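Moderator note: this is an archived Q&A kept for reference. The question asked for a predicted structure of one protein chain; the sequence and the answer are reproduced below.
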Amino acid sequence: MVSDETMMFSFGVEENRAEKVIRNAWQAMNEKGYNPVNQLVGYLLSGDPAYITSHMDARSQIRKVERDELLEELVRTYLERLESRN
């Protein structure tokens, strides 16, 4: 039987870890001259770590965090930013 009630979805992960990994990857890609937005989107969609530079150990670090955790952090941060504008 399917319920009409809204399901709660939670990873129960340490959000700071995903944030730190994203920040490090962002900085590393900027330093190497890559477009971090394009590279992160490519990685999140494909799972191919080649989208992330190995500079500053960013590729190794990002592979230690599940892509859904990274996506959750990005969406949460984006929505919080939208909310703070209102």
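Archived answer notes: The mean pLDDT is 91.
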